[in-house]
Amino acid sequence: xxxxxxxxxxxxxxxxxxxxxxxxxxxxxxxxxxxxxxxxxxxxxxxxxxxxxxxxxxxxxxxxxxxxxxxxxxxxxxxxxxxxxxxxxxxxxxxxxxxxxxxxxxxxxxxxxxxxxxxxxxxxxxxxxxxxxxxxxxxxxxxxxxxxxxxxxxxxxxxxxxxxxxxxxxxxxxxxxxxxxxxxxxxxxxxxxxxxxxxxxxxxxxxxxxxxxxxxxxxxxxxxxxxxxxxxxxxxxxxxxxxxxxxxxxxxxxxxxxxxxxxxxxxxxxxxxxxxxxxxxxxxxxxxxxxxxxxxxxxxxxxxxxxxxxxxxxxxxxxxxxxxxxxxxxxxxxxxxxxxxxxxxxxxxxxxxxxxxxxxxxxxxxxxxxxxxxxxxxxxxxxxxxxxxxxxxxxxxxxxxxxxxxxxxxxxxxxxxxxxxxxxxxxxxxxxxxxxxxxxxxxxxxxxxxxxxxxxxxxxxxxxxxxxxxxxxxxxxxxxxxxxxxxxxxxxxxxxxxxxxxxxxxx
Length: 507
Prior knowledge:
By secondary structure, this protein is α+β, with helices and mostly antiparallel strands. The protein contains 17 helices and 17 strands. The chain folds into three domains: 8-153 and 334-375 and 389-411, D-Maltodextrin-Binding Protein, domain 2, CATH 3.40.190; 159-326, D-Maltodextrin-Binding Protein, domain 2, CATH 3.40.190.10; 450-506. Helices cover 39% and strands 15% of the residues. The strands form six sheets. A five-stranded mixed beta sheet has the order 3-2-4-14-5. A hairpin with a 2-residue loop joins β15 and β16 (385-388).
């Protein structure tokens, strides 16, 4: 029976947490009832990711309302149309007390610049949980150094190398420790019949069409192994420079081309649907994926479903040593944020009431309610052992799953999880624990540029296209440098100038 494991990880908000928010009854319901007391009510807008939102009679919602002493009313919006709805609501002026912001979208940035949201920077220090927010993550989630939303924490370190250990054993290799070792593993998986079927039908690593520019794609992760920056670096003059203008980036790009030329990665990577990313590993065609550690668990489960003998086939390591040391690619440390509109929260006194509520949402009891539900209904604790009742009862899960949208996980996780004893889980935990020391952070993460808002998509496509073309051999290094010059002429020069001005102001 799985034993209780509690607390500890600063970034982990759990897979359930990625879902939805607290609350249950809609604004419309409360208006129809006509009995909403504004001083005791919190109105929220949040995206709906799970199949069902917590109903107004949800025991978990009622427990949360009892704990916070607030009536919680949520307007749920399908995630697929959330940004559109966000813009409509902002224009309407009929705003909730707190609103989930899924990313720094142009609509959110525009609203911030027009003064629609409270700047929270001066207030958070006064709250027992919010005041302990991680400074790096808070800065990452800020807009040019100013905080307009409370981040929802996620693991800061997720990048991993996922490897089929049965293949490693068959070709006589150990887990790679250096980039050269990594190359040798991919080469052996292509040439040494790792599945033992006597056919030349395998290759090293599967990569999808997700190219990425600093958003955690396999290419982003691997370029840090060579010492390249994470989207932007800082030169000897203390100024920001794009990663693709550095020598380390070009060294990584040559390595990627080598993998492609030697057929150590899938030839169709430029068009491969990321939804099918796991398939070649599960079906025995490829042996490596570079992505988040959570994908390793998905693949391991799929392999065991196909054949129970595949137990403990998949393992992970965090990174490999490169020519300039050992580095890894971090996330921004958060997944969206919670902002407070001035239209509905008009005074500083009202603001502090909302912040008190949000602070409470990080308390131990609140985190347990939104992540685990109600003891005796959703789970049991028996002599230190936590057992969930939800594995075969999704209805129970949906009673609280959505509430986790407002569980920010600050300063750390404070809810129950079932203890995991597998080697894979332990190694993933080790990667998270050790990775921050060697993470390559993006120094421009918090900077919001007007130039990028207007021209960012066009500028990104210039580099993404050139990157793909170089890897597959359609252009050479001169062709790539021509693309870099086109990037500068198309607005990149203005962008770098603006970012450096913002960087110096927010240092």
